[in-house]
Write a structure and sequence with these properties.
A hairpin with an 8-residue loop joins β7 (about 95-100) and β8 (about 110-120). About 25% of the residues lie in helices and about 30% in strands. The chain has one domain (about 5-175): Nucleoside Triphosphate Pyrophosphohydrolase (Alpha-Beta Complex), CATH 3.90.79. The radius of gyration is 15 Å and the shape is globular. It has four helices and ten strands; from the N terminus they run ββαββββαβββααβ. The chain is an alpha+beta fold and about 180 residues long. Strands 3, 6, 7, 8 and 10 form a five-stranded mixed sheet that branches. A three-stranded antiparallel sheet has the order 5-4-9. It has a two-stranded antiparallel ribbon with strand order 1-2.
Length: about 180
């Protein structure tokens, strides 16, 4: 099986070398990732429960779709790929970038680009990546994040906090791309 190759980046998110994913995580090196928050017409967020087979955060609830940016790949191409791989849907247009997070121990030393869009499902979940999915109200998510719920990934909690200060979920139509 071919090892996943990722870019190791410096403090300015510039590529400095290519290494395999396991080595990057083991050494705590800075690298790149994407997350997308997908809302339905009721303004509920689709959360995925990470597969129990995953080596990191197995069985925890996370963003709608997420993944590492492969070596040589751009963030915007990665989010399109991850949504298709994990949820079985194709982006009609790239979603808008909402914000970026800098690497921290809380988020696994990842530069994270966070996107948002609207889709009502259904999704075809990739069972190697996701055990199940669920639509959850923003109020419930905010409550769980405030309680530091242990069944949410630390990265998702670190994304939700700035998202809620950026925009009210009822305004998400103004800031999202479309997917089909």
């Amino acid at each position: 099986m071919k090892k996943e190759q990722l870019a190791v980046v410096d403090e300015q998110d510039k590529v400095i070398e290519i290494r395999d994913r396991d080595e990057i995580h083991r050494l705590g090196l800075r690298h790149r990732a994407v997350h997308i928050l997908i809302f339905n017409q009721k303004q509920e967020l689709f959360l995925q429960k990470r597969s129990h087979k995953k080596d990191i955060n197995a069985g925890l609830w996370d963003s709608s779709a997420a993944g590492h940016v492969d070596a040589g790949e751009e963030y915007k191409d990665c989010i399109t790929r991850e949504v298709h791989e994990e949820l079985g849907v194709t982006l009609n247009t790239p979603p808008e970038l909402l914000f970026k997070l800098s690497p921290s121990y809380e988020n696994g030393m990842e530069f994270i680009h966070v996107y948002c869009c609207q889709h009502n499902g259904p999704f075809m979940l990739c069972r190697d990546e996701i055990d199940q999915g669920q639509w959850v109200s923003s109020a419930k998510i905010s409550q769980l994040v405030a309680e530091n719920a242990p069944h949410l990934t630390a990265t998702f909690k670190s994304i939700w906090k700035p998202f809620m200060t950026l925009s009210k979920p009822s305004q998400s139509e103004q800031i999202h791309g479309r997917i089909s």
